[in-house]
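=== Discrete structure encoding ===
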Amino acid sequence: MAHRDHGSLHRWRASLVPGLERHGILEGDLPTAPTVALQAARTLRRFLKDNTFSPEARAVLEQRLSTLEERAVDPGLRAVEDKEAQAATAQAEQHAIPGIYVYSLPHYTRYPYDPDTGRTLMKIGRAAAP
């Protein structure tokens, strides 16, 4: 893979490659959860846009992007993710542990408030001791 601006290679690698590695994109071990697949697709899309690749490397990365995009919108995977999020929320609420919490629903992470940056709405609350 050739990078357009070799002077910024270190900055590029420090900022973008950890995201690719975190999502398993470089190794081909792609996330299956729709929300994580969507985040990984955004990272990979930016990686493809900002860099120059051999035709073979670009083809591999574009195929991985296609797979991530399919997983991000798969209704069956979304239903499973939503059910797991609801179960985790119910379990946390049962314990009623005092403290401050921050979370977001899968809908908000799928449809960010600001799609260009990926920023989304979060719920902030406080749980008091029973």
